[in-house]
From TrEMBL, chain A:
It is found in: Cell membrane. It is a multi-pass membrane protein. The chain crosses the membrane at residues 40-63, 122-141, 161-189, 218-238. Belongs to the cytochrome c oxidase subunit 3 family. Heterooctamer of two A chains, two B chains, two C chains and two D chains. One of its GO terms (biological process) is aerobic electron transport chain. It holds the Pfam family COX3. GO terms for molecular function: cytochrome-c oxidase activity. GO terms for cellular component: plasma membrane. This is Cytochrome bo(3) ubiquinol oxidase subunit 3. Its main location: membrane. Keywords: Cell membrane, Membrane, Transmembrane, Transmembrane helix. InterPro entries: Cyt_c/ubiquinol_Oxase_su3, Cyt_c_oxidase-like_su3, Cyt_c_oxidase_su3-like_sf, Cyt_c_oxidase_su3_a-hlx.
From TrEMBL, chain B:
It is a multi-pass membrane protein. This is Cytochrome C oxidase subunit IV. The keyword Membrane applies. The keyword Metal-binding does not apply. GO terms for cellular component: plasma membrane. Keywords: Cell membrane, Membrane, Transmembrane, Transmembrane helix. Its main location: membrane. It holds the Pfam family COX4_pro. It is found in: Cell membrane. It comes from Oricola cellulosilytica. The chain crosses the membrane at residues 26-46, 58-78, 84-105.
């Protein structure tokens, strides 16, 4: 990565046209001295994602604060009947624990990857992907249950009409993130398994040489998905 | 990346100097993992017990911030990154909080208008 991130002398001749513009913007400075290009870009992507989820939760707050119709009681709406008694929010609680567990296994996978323990890394990443898929499965169950109870983006039997729109939008967007995360976990796990990061093979998409830092970058994305769920759990389900 | 396997426990300083990678003891991750479980259980408990009002909201916020802080700081390695990156990532979301404040005022006004203008059937 040194070739793209080192500080070049300013006396180098500028290439003509748009190539010169791109070269000037791409290679003159390196602000993040210890973070590689890939890691810095992942962080900036996650920052932009923070704004997206921030705006979703913000819109939800605005809708909920300004409606004069009572907001549905999430504790009851998302409760399940287990053994004849109502347990509030139980499915959401299980989903939270599954996602936190997957975050833990991902952190361990990053650790193992830096120790070059390929087998352990692959197993931990597959566990992470499995729990991610479980999470999405439970979310699909939750959506099915709510839809069958008559919750729609334009109305629902429990209270304020905006409940459905915010619910489907926020959890749907988060579920999409989890799904994409699972797919990329499998891709990165396959690369680790085949030893592509040991040899520094070029990636199929960026053609850049991969190394074990990509497991950490994958981990950043996965922890972010967990992080967003922390806020959704607090504001949408518990509030 | 240097060719031979460098174990975190052997030479953490040297490894960190040579590579960008983050090397930290597994024990630390397990402790953070444990606390994330405890804090999640606590926030679920807030709902289960049925706390209301200020107590409920403050507990939800406290548990949420602690969980978010642990994930960002340890799992995402933010405490070990250089300050240039930390500021670049953690300061911009403050703008979201400003936006929250603006929209809270706005939605209060909207709610007031709805109550005043559409009493009993808006």
């Amino acid at each position: 990565m040194a070739d793209t991130t080192a500080n070049h002398a300013t006396s180098r001749p500028r290439r003509p046209g748009i190539a010169g513009v791109a070269a000037d913007w791409a290679s003159d400075q390196r602000a993040f001295k210890t973070a590689s290009w890939g890691k810095a870009m992942m962080w900036i992507f996650l920052l932009s994602d923070t704004f997206i989820f921030g705006c979703f939760l913000l819109a939800y707050m605005t809708a909920r604060m300004s409606t004069v119709v009572p907001w549905p009681d999430a504790s009851k709406v998302f409760g399940l009947q287990i053994g004849g008694s109502d347990v509030p929010l139980i499915l959401i609680a299980i989903m939270t624990f599954v996602l936190i567990s997957s975050s833990g296994t991902m952190a361990m996978a990053v650790n193992c990857a830096y120790q070059r323990r390929r087998g352990a890394t692959v197993v931990l990443m597959l566990f992470t992907a499995l729990m991610g898929a479980t999470f999405v499965g439970m979310q699909a169950f939750e959506w099915t249950k709510l839809i069958s109870e008559g919750v729609r983006p334009w109305g629902n039997p429990f209270g304020a009409a905006q409940f459905g729109a915010t619910f489907f939008m926020i959890t749907g967007f988060h579920g999409t993130h989890v799904t994409i995360g699972v797919i990329f976990l499998l891709i990165v796990a396959r690369k680790v398994w085949r030893g592509e990061y040991d040899r520094g093979d070029r990636g199929f998409f960026t053609s850049r040489r991969g190394d074990y830092e990509q497991v950490e970058i994958m981990g950043l994305y996965w922890h972010f998905v967990d992080l967003v769920w922390v806020f959704i759990f607090a504001f949408f389900y518990l509030w | 990346m240097s060719a031979p396997a460098t174990h975190a426990h052997d030479v953490p300083q040297a490894a960190a100097a040579v590579e960008h990678g983050q090397h930290h003891p597994i024990r630390l991750y397990l402790i953070v993992w444990f606390w994330l479980f405890v804090l999640s259980a606590c926030s679920y408990f807030v709902d289960y017990v049925g706390f209301e009002g200020f107590l409920r909201w403050s507990l939800i916020i406290v548990f949420m911030m602690l969980k978010a802080g642990l994930i960002v700081a340890v799992f995402m390695h933010m405490v070990w990154e250089r300050l240039a990156l930390v500021y670049a990532i953690l300061l911009p979301p403050v703008a979201v909080l400003v936006f929250v404040a603006i929209m809270a005022i706005e939605s209060d006004y909207t709610a007031l208008m709805r109550t005043m203008s559409f009493v009993g059937g808006g």
